[in-house]
Input
Amino acid sequence: MESLAARRTRLMGPNVPTFYRRPLEIVRGEGVWLWDAAGHRYLDAYNNVPHVGHCHPRVVDAVARQLATLDTHSRYLHAGILDYAERLTATFGDGLTQALFACTGSEAMDVALRMAQAATGRTGIVATDNTYHGNTNAVAQLSARRPPLGGYPPHVRLVPSPDARAPLGGSMAAQPAAFAAAVARAAEDLAEAGHGLAALVVCPVFANEGLPGVGRGWLDAAAAAVREVGGVLIVDEVQPGLGRVGTHMWGHGLLRVAPDIVVLGKALGNGHPLAALVTRPDHMAAFRDRFGYFNTTAATPVAAAAGTAVLDVMADEGLCENAGRTGARLTEALGTLSDAGIARVTTHGLMAAVEVVDGTGHPDAARAEAVVERMKDAGVLIGRIGRQMHVLKIRPPMPFATAHVDRLVEALHAALAAAPLTEGAPA
Ligand SMILES: Cc1ncc(COP(=O)(O)O)c(C=O)c1O
Output
């Protein structure tokens, strides 16, 4: 019989991404647990889309009730979406009081780029050289991993990503200033080329770059360099947002930096396609005056019901506080890893990066992959990230508890023991 993987390729074409060498067929989810078609249960320590837990009954119920009442596009007035916009924007400071809704993070980021351009009258965009912000044409042009056909457009500049193993400027202390200097150089270059700087786009914790380790003030110099030339700061909160960092509702709160435009996605609807952009009224007006913007299936009553239920559950179950508490336990437990191939552990609440190197200190993607596969076989799901895909990425649904941390770290210990350190070639 044709396997699901073969059928997928036949029907959807080659190279459709899956996790794991032998992809899982997941058929059910509940809380922090997933079940495959054979009935095996997995602890989900990777998925950030089911933010308040897989199939949370309150989200399911809110969506189902609204679906049975009204599900239409966004060209009618509806109090539900305004109530949600009010609730969502109330979680921001810095004069960020207005929201625009989309279905995916990519769409929201696409709007953010155009908004920055409309607000500044310039076109230049600066991003880091090891990131992912989405898949529309304009946003995909920021990808270093899959460069655009025909090369990068002239208004895009990529600056080196911060890195924990090889920090910009030679040390972790020097890294923020070195990053800011690279941003300033890129802005100068864009000015000389006649584009000028519209925006710097970053994830506040650099999640796709492998969590290089940031804290209060880390982005201050870069933000100042952007503002000095009249650009705006776009932060991509698709991964760290909605309480994941444990101490703050948004990742940029951890850094105490004030963004101009914030992009949100994934977690917002707990799986229902809901993304948003939050900004100041002047930037919103600059965009709306120029482009209007209509998105058929965004800002619908059903999307609002999903988003509102997620905020309710977050508050009622204290999930931001839980991310802080359980995240502290995760930090402590990961600190007990005594393996010589673990070069670093970085955590921000319920988000962790564990960097795997070989005996000579070089990135060891093969061992990281072996660890991820072995953990999957032992019933615990994690992923990989980083320029060389050698960083273990842990980012569970937010109801993750201490007992789950213990099980995760026990499986990690076992997987590391079963995938021994590789010697590595001497430099
Ligand atoms: C940081 C970041 N930004 C934006 C996106 C794009 O979101 P979406 O897949 O909803 O378009 C992603 C998706 O992985 C992401 O990780």
